[in-house]
From TrEMBL:
<dbReference type="InterPro" id="IPR000073">
    <property type="entry name" value="AB_hydrolase_1"/>
</dbReference>
<protein>
    <submittedName>
        <fullName>Alpha/beta hydrolase</fullName>
    </submittedName>
</protein>
<dbReference type="GO" id="GO:0016787">
    <property type="term" value="F:hydrolase activity"/>
</dbReference>
<dbReference type="Pfam" id="PF00561">
    <property type="entry name" value="Abhydrolase_1"/>
</dbReference>
<keyword id="KW-0378">Hydrolase</keyword>
<dbReference type="InterPro" id="IPR029058">
    <property type="entry name" value="AB_hydrolase_fold"/>
</dbReference>
<feature type="domain" description="AB hydrolase-1">
    <location>
        <begin position="30"/>
        <end position="292"/>
    </location>
</feature>
<dbReference type="InterPro" id="IPR000639">
    <property type="entry name" value="Epox_hydrolase-like"/>
</dbReference>
Amino acid sequence: MSWFEGFERARFSLPGGSVTARIGGHRSKPALLLLHGFPQTHTMWHRVAQQLQESYFVVLPDLRGYGDSHKPPGGADHAAYSKRAMAQDMADLMTVLGQPQFFLCGHDRGGRVAHRLAVDQPNRIRKLALIDIAPTFDMYHGNWGRDPAPGVDPHFQFAKSYYHWFHLIQPAPLPERMIGADARSYLHAKLGGWGAAGLQNYEPEALAEYERCFCRAESIHAACEDYRASAGIDLEHDAESRDKGHKICCETLVLWGERGVVARLFDPLALWQAQCARAVTGSTLPAGHFIPEELPGPTADALRAFFR
């Protein structure tokens, strides 16, 4: 199947700003919203979405700050890039598309947006799937969900493997300038890392799109703002939700790559079960972090089986 065959690309004016998305499948079918992560765009779903468009009305947006969507100033508290604000964009997009309820799946940063959307607006989400993440609050606070392996310092291993979590949150413009000095090399290092087998799983069209979108000063700054928000205002929102006992109310599927950092350091199933009021199921897949592009067929199969 050719590149995004059957999908149309459009820009939507929303209360929080404009969002670019591809839309495909049948409007008469259940709606499925797929959210990408860092340092990517909606392009990461290209092969998965083509396998799902016969069964769903598939919506593939660029998150706020990424791709061709709007990149507002973050503000002193980076609130414009809170997962609550990013989630509201997605809820508004689905409202514009006439979808009061929908299935939701997020990978990486998109999973964190999906988590917040499911907690803040539970009446909108029919079922939730999260790919290769543990809860942000637990990851920052060293809640592993299990006892560390003998002789392993999980704090050191986490900082070593996810150093970008601590680099990108440094005050502007230091990380922006460091990354911007050779953005393409930085991008390739991220796409080829975290258990991924280099760049071999990325089609030339996808890699070119990531380079076009990421290697711009405004995109690099927006990505940093995303992470700054996660280390600040997002943790405040998460702590408030936990204090009030607000949990994910829908059935949830968790998938994670057996070669990734999440599998090595965390028990994601146990951690998500603690944050969900309904059944949580999940398993590993033989991949690194970028599961939808490493294993598009098994990813599509798992989502189809869960969302049907």
